[in-house]
Design a protein that fits this description.
By secondary structure, the protein is of the alpha/beta class. Helices cover 49% and strands 13% of the residues. Strands 1, 2, 3, 4, 5, 6, 7, 8 and 9 form a nine-stranded mixed β-sheet that branches. The radius of gyration is 25 Å and the shape is globular.
Length: 445
C-alpha cells in the first residue's frame, strides 16, 4: 500500500511539475511575442532608454522599440498618429505642456490610482511629479510618470573665470569679485565684461535661447520673467491683462533684450543645439542649455573646452529665483492594446536601482532618493547644479490650448529680441492674444 501511495504522489508531483513548466513556457512565449512601442524625440536620452530597456527584455521577455522622432516633427507626428492609427504607440514620452491636450483629448490613460497602488507617486521628487505628471495642476490626478527630468542650466568657462588677470580687471570695472553669478545683474555684468567681438579669435559674453522655433525663446525668457516677479496670468481665473504685461514682465523682457546684445552673430536663431555648439567651440564665456545636453559639452571628442567648463543653476532676480523645467513624462496611450505591458515597463523603470542605472547611462532620474544621493552627484560634473536647479523649477501653461499660447509667445518675444517691437509692445500684444485664446476656449468671460 505504501509503495502505491508513493507512486501516486510521485505521479502527481510530476504532473504538477509538467503543468508548471507548461505555464512558464507559455508565459515566456507570450512575453517574447509582445513588443511595446514608445514614441520619443530623437536625442541622446532616447538612445539611453534603448540601452536600459534591454535589461527589461532580459527579465520579462517583452521587447521595447523606441520610435525616435525629430524634434521639429515630434508633437505633430504623435497627435497625427493618434488620429489616424491610434494604437500605434503604447507609451508616449511627451513634453509636460502636452498633458492637457493628451488627457482632455482622450489619448492619455489616467494613471493616478495605479501610481498610488505601486507607491510610485511618493517615490518621485514632488516638484518633478507636479510639472511632468499632474493635470490639472493641484488636482492630484496624474497622466504621466516622469521619464527624463530636465531643466534650463548654465555652463561657463572656468579658465576665464579663474584667470588672475581677468579677475583683477573685472573687479576694477565692477567693484566686486568675478565668480559664478548669483543674480541676473551679475550675469549681465559678466556677459558684458567677456563680450569681445573684435578679439582674435572673437569671444562673446553669453549664448541665449532667442529663436522663434517651437519653444526656444519662451524657455529661455520665462524664467527671467518669473524671477523679476512677472507671471503668465492668474491660473484660477485665466486673467492675463495687467499681469503678463505688468511692469515686472516688461522690465524682465527689457533685461533679456539688453542681455542679448552680448550674444554671437546669428543668435536670434539660437536654441539648445546652437547654444551647445557655441559652448563646445569656446565662442562664449557662458551659455544656457538643458542639462540633458551637457554630456556633449564635457565630451573630449565633441568639445574643445571639455576640461575647462563648470556649471551653475539659473540666478535669482529681483522677484525671486525660478527656472524653466524641461523633460518629459511617460504616458500610456488609452488606445493601446498592451496597456498591462506598458505599465509593467513603467513600474520597472521607476525602481530605484533602475533609476540609478538610468543616471549612469546619462539620463536624469525622477526618483527622490537617487536625485539626492551622493552617487548621483558624482556621476557627472553638472549633476550638483542640476539638483540645485530642480528646487526652483516652474512650467508653462499645461492647458490643451498650450500650443496656441506658446506660438504667440514665440512670435512676440522674438520680435522684441530682434528689435521689431519694444518690450512693452511685445508684452501688450501677447497679453491681448493670450486673453483672446482663453476667451475662445471658454475659460475667460
Amino acid at each position: 500500500i505504501g509503495g502505491g501511495i508513493m507512486k501516486l504522489v510521485s505521479c502527481k508531483l510530476s504532473l504538477i511539475a509538467l503543468v508548471a513548466v507548461f505555464f512558464l513556457t507559455t508565459i515566456c512565449a507570450n512575453s517574447a511575442d509582445v513588443t511595446i512601442n514608445i514614441a520619443w524625440a530623437e536625442w541622446d536620452p532616447a538612445n539611453f532608454l534603448v540601452q536600459l530597456a534591454k535589461d527589461f527584455t532580459k527579465e520579462t521577455g517583452i521587447k521595447v522599440v523606441v520610435d525616435q522622432i525629430p524634434w521639429g516633427q515630434f508633437e505633430t507626428k504623435v497627435f497625427t498618429t493618434f488620429a489616424a492609427k491610434p494604437d500605434t504607440y503604447d507609451i508616449v514620452i511627451g513634453d509636460s505642456q502636452w498633458l492637457g491636450k493628451g488627457a482632455v483629448g482622450g489619448h492619455y490613460l489616467d494613471l493616478t490610482n495605479w501610481m498610488k497602488s505601486k507607491k510610485i507617486d511618493t517615490a518621485i521628487s514632488p516638484m518633478v511629479l507636479k510639472y511632468l505628471g499632474e493635470y490639472p495642476k493641484g488636482s492630484g490626478k496624474y497622466y504621466a510618470v516622469p521619464a527624463e527630468t530636465d531643466c534650463n542650466g548654465f555652463a561657463y568657462r572656468k579658465d576665464l573665470f579663474e584667470d588672475p588677470k581677468e579677475k583683477q580687471a573685472f573687479k576694477k570695472k565692477y567693484g566686486y569679485d568675478l565668480a559664478v553669478p548669483k543674480t541676473y545683474k551679475e550675469l549681465k555684468d559678466i556677459a558684458e565684461f567677456f563680450h569681445r567681438p573684435k578679439a582674435n579669435p572673437p569671444l562673446y559674453g553669453i549664448a541665449l535661447w532667442l529663436a522663434k522655433d517651437y519653444d526656444a525663446i519662451t524657455m529661455g525668457f520665462q524664467q527671467v520673467m518669473w524671477s523679476y516677479g512677472g507671471s503668465y496670468g492668474d491660473e484660477k481665473t485665466f486673467k492675463v491683462q495687467g499681469i503678463l504685461n505688468s511692469k515686472a514682465g516688461i522690465d524682465a523682457l527689457q533685461y533679456y533684450v539688453d542681455l542679448a546684445k552680448f550674444t554671437p552673430p546669428g543668435s536670434e536663431n539660437y536654441y539648445w543645439n546652437e547654444s551647445l555648439t557655441a559652448l563646445q567651440q569656446g565662442k562664449v564665456a557662458m551659455g544656457m542649455d538643458f542639462f540633458a545636453f551637457f554630456p556633449g559639452l564635457v565630451s573630449k571628442e565633441k568639445s574643445k573646452v571639455a576640461d575647462k567648463v563648470g556649471f551653475f543653476a539659473g540666478p535669482a532676480g529681483p522677484g525671486g529665483r525660478f527656472i524653466s523645467i524641461g523633460g518629459q513624462g511617460m504616458s500610456v496611450s488609452k488606445h493601446s492594446k498592451k496597456q498591462a505591458e506598458a505599465l509593467k515597463f513603467i513600474e520597472w523603470f521607476c525602481k530605484e536601482e533602475n533609476q540609478l542605472k538610468w543616471a549612469k547611462l546619462g539620463g536624469f532620474p525622477a526618483n527622490a532618493k537617487v536625485l539626492q544621493s551622493k552617487e548621483f552627484q558624482t556621476i557627472a560634473p553638472y549633476n550638483p547644479a542640476f539638483v540645485e536647479s530642480m528646487k526652483y523649477v516652474r512650467d508653462f501653461w499645461a492647458v490643451p490650448e498650450y500650443a496656441e499660447l506658446l506660438q504667440k509667445c514665440q512670435i512676440h518675444w522674438n520680435a522684441a529680441a530682434t528689435g521689431q517691437k519694444t518690450p512693452k509692445q511685445a508684452m501688450d500684444d501677447l497679453a491681448r492674444d493670450h486673453e483672446a485664446i482663453f476667451k475662445k476656449a471658454g475659460y475667460l468671460k
